[in-house]
Amino acid sequence: MDAQARIEEHGLHILMGFYENTFRIMRQCYQELGRNPGEPLATWQDAFKPHHFIALQETIGDRCLTWALDFPANRALPGEAGKSHTVWEYVCLLIKFASDRLSFSFDRL
Fold it and tell me: Is 68:57 a contact under the CB 8 Å cutoff?
């Protein structure tokens, strides 16, 4: 636990499809609070930090395998309305992501 006694969530997987709406509301809350710059967690950017790397673990028999994933960053701010991708654009993004990860895996061999 940190000095402000807050719980540090290790990922926003709990938000699922509510990610953008949740950040929009949190940003509005922080704007309405109007906290002083010297206060702890004065802005929503102080409270939420970007993180693009995750590690998933899978137990197979008596071994624990780690699947490390480094997701590409973007310039979008969470909670700002943006253009939604089409299904085809999501398919293309998924293929590129998988291709990048696969080539990374072969580079490590």
Answer: no
Q: How, if at all, do strands 53-60 and 63-70 pair?
A: antiparallel
Spatial distance between the Cα atoms of 68 and 70, rounded to a whole number of angstroms: 7
Which structure tokens are listed for 77?
Answer: 């701010």
Question: Is the pTM higher than 0.90?
Answer: no
From the DSSP assignment, how many helices (H) and strands (E) are in the chain? 3, 2
Residue in the block written with tokens 């006694």: 5
Amino acid at 55: A
Q: Which residues of the chain have pLDDT under 50?
A: 109
Q: Among 63, 74, 53, 65, which Cα is nearest to 10's?
A: 53
Phi, psi of 40 (to 5 degrees): -60, 140
